[in-house]
């Protein structure tokens, strides 16, 4: 994979982590699963080990946002 994913430990200041839909597609492809992704929407998965929610999106502004700006959006 071109970049590392996952969550090593629960995040203290953030209830959700933002990830690239491209990463999710690569991960599903490596697992041999169907790539039935709605590119107009977003997908949320939960880490089975840490319980952190990961929101996968194509929205570049959300991917590049800092933790502070994410909190302001909520």
Describe the structure.
Helices cover 31% and strands 19% of the residues. The protein is an alpha+beta fold. It has one domain (16-73). Strands 1-3-2 form a three-stranded mixed beta sheet. Strand 2 (43-46) and strand 3 form a beta hairpin. The radius of gyration is 13 Å and the shape is globular.
The biggest beta sheet is recorded as:
3 strands, mixed
Total tally of structural domains: 1
> Could you give the distance between the termini?
31 Å
Write down the Rg. Answer: 13 Å
DSSP helix count? 3
Shape: globular
Widest sheet: strand ordering: 1-3-2
Provide the structure class. alpha+beta
Q: Tell me the total number of β-strands.
A: 3
Helix share bin: 25-40%
Kindly state the mean pLDDT as a whole number?
77
Order of helices and strands: EHEEHH
Detail the topology: elements first, then pairings:
Layout: E1 16-20, H1 21-31, E2 43-46, E3 53-57, H2 60-64, H3 67-73
Nutshell version of this structure?
The chain has three helices and three strands, in the order βαββαα. The chain is of the alpha+beta class and 74 residues long.
Jot down its keywords.
74 residues; alpha+beta; three-stranded mixed sheet; 3 helices; disordered C terminus
